[in-house]
Exosome complex component RRP45 (Caenorhabditis remanei), 432 residues
Amino acid sequence: MRVPPLTICEKAVILEALRSGKRFDFRSLEEFRDVKLVVGSEVGTAICTIGNTKVMAAVSAQIAEPSSMRPNKGVINIDVDLSPMANVANEHDRLGSKGMELIRLLELIIRDSRCIDVESLCIRAGSEIWKVRVDVRILDEDGSLLDCACLAAITALQHFKRPNVSLEAHHTLIYSEYEKAPVPLNIYHMPICTTIGLLDKGQMVVIDPTEKEAACLDGSIVVACNKRREVCALHQSTNLVLTTKQIERCVKLAMARAEALTAVVSSIIKEDRQERSAFKRPDGFAITTPSLILTTGTAASRQIKAPVTKREPESSQRSLYQPSVIINENPLSVGSVKQEEVDEDELLAEQLTTIQNSVGQVAVTDNQNTVMSNRKREVEEVNNLLEGLDDSEEEEEIQTMTLGPSEPVVNTKMVVEEEAAPIGLVKRKKKK
């Protein structure tokens, strides 16, 4: 996918602003963008950000066989990935001319400048060496891509530590970080790359140009220096003819930039080693996550609360107005109450008031009168049944007494009259 070029109007506006000494990000022509550098929790990883340009670098090592031309020297390889995430013009698994140029410049700055001692990477001369690989991933692109990639790669190499080894008669022992401390790389110096844009055939200098500014410039020059004020690499992107004074001016700006960034890298690596020596695991790339982004398991997601909103009393005019269409309104949420807003004391008070009001408003109705009369009728029927049972029991007693052989028949009436009095008393007690 090709990026649409700048229009004539955009290009004219940018050039006019640069010639007047102004830029759209409120910088001067000789002012750099802010640099953010973070090392990861794993050794050999780093992320560098210059403005909106972001690059991640990761270093790894493995044992390999050396070449016959250099039997006692290690190997350093650099791999670059230009993903479409960084720029829509990039294609997946295709570097193109831009990617190949970036790889060649990184190899020129890091490997050909001999900033790393490759002889210390030899294990057995002619048979085993350490093969170090630097993977550079472009996450976002907005100008000064080589500067950001070079700084990320140098920081990752400073942060990297290879495993410790010991030589035996017929084999090589590789120790883990828990058995023996890893060994850092021998780095002589740190080349820092600086891109300087050229305008009006080199008469004007634009430091750290953005992507749109680079498309309007006549060309650019790349200067790699270290803090010893040594020029490690020099590359010019176009065929502009520059004078000696113009090149010297660019080199001076690059040297001042290299001294400042070298101090930043050294301080970051020193702080990381102090934390690791105190058995503290660094935060790593977690500190680059904005605090507003919520992730699972974080305290911020549990502490967040909805903002309290105050409802104003609706006026008569507003109550009369009824919109014809309601958009994005959940009918189930109308009149609902949040769980946090429910107060137990208020709820109990409301329930008590409703119960008292209901008790005070109770009235006797015809249905209740009918229920009471039915209840009395049932009680009377039960009492009549009990009286009938008592009468049956008296008759059985009389029969047993009259049918007895020892007592005469004449005395039955007297017995009944004598026993009738206590039975009547029992009935009266039951009625009471």
Q: What stands out?
A: The first strand starts at residue 35 and ends at 39. Residues 367 and 410 are 59 Å apart (CA to CA). The chain has ten helices and 14 strands.
